[in-house]
């Protein structure tokens, strides 16, 4: 599955669950390089940043730096290649105040908190 296809699926799943969703384009005028691909807010006001990678993709130093800066301001930032992540993050905010590993599948997802990436255990 391409990165764009994964992004589109995540965006659709979030919108279907009532999220406000913005697809960003890092490096375009007014948007810093490394900005997450998706910024979303659920009806309760929880914002998340989601950087999407294709399977086998990697995060650049610019992205890592920008995601770290964002996470220092208490925005939850995720890096994922899971096409079902939109459903899972919506379920997470609906059902829980903590991340439980059984919310995620065999694909890799990372959560960034205060500039440190943590792998969400499968």
TrEMBL record:
Keyword Flavoprotein: no
Domain of life: Bacteria
Nuclease found in the keyword field: yes
Cofactor(s) this protein cannot do without: Mg(2+)
SMART domains reported in the protein's UniProt record: VRR_NUC
Record-annotated VRR-NUC domain positions: 1-84
InterPro entries xrefs: Restrct_endonuc-II-like, tRNA_endonuc-like_dom_sf, VRR_NUC
Gene3D superfamilies: 3.40.1350.10
Name recorded for this polypeptide: VRR-NUC domain-containing protein
High-level lineage: Bacteria, Bacillati, Bacillota, Bacilli, Lactobacillales
